[in-house]
Amino acid sequence: MDQLQLILARYIAIHEKIFKFSLLKAIPIPGLFKPIDYGRHFAELDSVVPDLEKLAASADNRAGTTSEYEQYVSALLDTMRFLRDMCKRLHDKRQGGLKDYTIDQYESDVATYQGLVAKYRSLGLKLNESKRR
Fold first, then answer.
1. CA distances from 111 to 23, 105, 121 (A)
2. N- to C-terminal Cα distance for the chain?
3. Count of the separate structural domains present in the chain
4. Of the candidates 78, 93, 80, which has an alpha carbon nearest to the alpha carbon of residue 35?
5. Which end of the chain has less Cβ packing within 10 Å, N or C?
6. What value, to the nearest 5°, has the Cα angle with vertex 96 and ends 95 and 101?
7. How far apart are CA 31 and CA 28, in angstroms?
8. Above 80 in pLDDT, residue 86?
């Protein structure tokens, strides 16, 4: 597995822990419900983002790198940064430090994030298609 695939796998695991549907999330049963640990997810993303930044910088400097690859890495980086920042806000809110992060702002952030996810996935499909040719 190459570096990009490892980074993508780590990101997807975090994304699923936050957004994947679970009955334990939907029906908070005392003793079984575990709240999402946004602080841990922020820290994980904060450690992965620099790896992707280095990969993006090396792709920019590498001859023969396709523009599809550069666009994909850039879109994935934007998506991961946004989720990292969102996790930070949610962690701070849970700790009582960010009182002005409203449900409307959260819903706006989720919509923005979903748009970023759609963009990097679309570019990933194009990248895979160009590799098949």
1. 23, 10, 15
2. 21
3. 1
4. 93
5. C
6. 105
7. 9
8. yes
